[in-house]
User: Which sequence fits this backbone?
């Protein structure tokens, strides 16, 4: 069995990510970035279910739904927001 770990550092997985990113941008999330997709995969999907083969990694990337990414990014923003003060948002609220 191949001991290589198929994560976001694998070039073949990265190619699948680019394809999936283009699909998501075309269909529903036109402002989604590669970094956001990469963060979702590494911090959520691949952490919960690490792929053991290229086939599993490719299948996982292709199976990503827009809702999954949005839910993850919203949760991440809420978690990060807990540790910031209101002054960090002054430029957004005009203060």
Assistant:
């Amino acid at each position: 069995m191949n001991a290589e770990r198929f994560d976001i550092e694998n070039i073949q997985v990265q190619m699948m990510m680019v394809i999936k990113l283009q699909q998501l941008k075309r269909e529903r999330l036109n402002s989604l970035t590669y970094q956001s997709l990469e963060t979702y995969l590494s911090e959520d999907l691949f952490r919960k279910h690490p792929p053991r083969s290229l086939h599993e990694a490719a299948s996982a990337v292709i199976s990503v739904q827009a809702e999954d990414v949005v839910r993850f990014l919203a949760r991440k923003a809420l978690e990060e927001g807990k540790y910031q003060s209101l002054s960090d948002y002054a430029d957004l609220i005009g203060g």
Notes: Residues 11-93 form one domain. The radius of gyration is 16 Å. The first helix runs from residue 11 to 27. The chain has one domain: 11-93.
